[in-house]
Design goal:
two-stranded antiparallel sheet; 11 helices; 14% strand; PNPLA domain-containing protein; lipid metabolism; Acyl_Trfase/lysoPLipase
């Protein structure tokens, strides 16, 4: 049957030609030239397989291969080669990477839409649930780390006026207003394995849940945008 990882046959065995089922769909549905001409800045992350380092692609560099690399789960797809380097899903090193947004965006409000549950009410005990929770923790780790870094910088920045003058990034972090929308308990009821499922009913359910959570957040916090942050980064930094 060939090589396997945790009972999975590797994509190099079942798909030796490296044909990616999403390539034609992405080519058909996404106008990359229009995206580059647009006013919205887009950043996409991928993880270099050999070095484990995060690479952030800006809009001028984003193409089909970058999109495929950013969602390349190594148990499902072969690594995507860009500029001679193999890449896997960016979530392993930055999920998402917030620092480019803080560094380059003119807006001081940063809104994180989090789709991976941070916590679970109970510890998993079955093999599928344990693997699911391992994946959640792995993909949340980089986001938690970046939020803590931003929180630590916000703690020290008000006392470091000279440093803020010399380092514009620190000044932007000092003035940053962070916010977060997540799926709450409703999203937590879905197991991590649902990420590999795509029945129409599930997609519609997740779509509706996203709108509901966003609407509820706006009702509560719309007036805070541009005025104060609703995600206390400092408390995350010292938690």
């Amino acid at each position: 049957m060939g090589r396997s990882v945790v009972g999975r046959v590797l994509p190099y065995d079942i798909n030796p030609w490296g044909v990616h089922p999403l390539r034609r769909i992405i080519q058909r549905e996404i106008d990359f030239d229009a995206m580059r001409r647009g006013e919205v800045e887009v950043y996409v992350s991928a993880t270099a397989v050999r070095s484990g380092r995060l690479r952030v692609f800006d809009g001028s560099r984003i193409d089909v291969d970058v999109v495929l690399a950013s969602a390349c789960l190594p148990t499902l797809f072969q690594a995507v080669t860009i500029d001679g380097e193999e890449y896997w899903d960016g979530g392993y090193a930055g999920n998402p990477s917030l620092l480019p947004l803080v560094d380059h965006a003119e807006a001081r409000d940063l809104l994180v839409v989090q789709i991976n549950p941070v916590g679970r009410d109970e510890a998993p005990t079955t093999a599928p649930d344990i693997l699911d929770r391992m994946n959640e923790i792995t993909f949340n780790a980089s986001l938690v780390k970046e939020l803590r870094i931003l929180g630590l910088l916000q703690i020290v920045a008000p006392e470091a006026d000279r440093a803020c003058e010399q380092h514009p990034f620190l000044a932007r972090v000092r003035d940053l207003r962070a916010h977060r929308i997540d799926g709450g308990d409703e999203l937590a009821r879905f197991s991590a394995s649902s990420k590999t499922e795509a029945p129409a009913a599930l997609i519609r359910s997740l779509h509706d849940l996203g709108w509901q959570q966003a609407d509820a957040w706006l009702v509560e916090h719309r007036a805070d945008l541009g005025r104060r942050q609703t995600l206390d980064l400092a408390s995350l930094a010292i938690a």
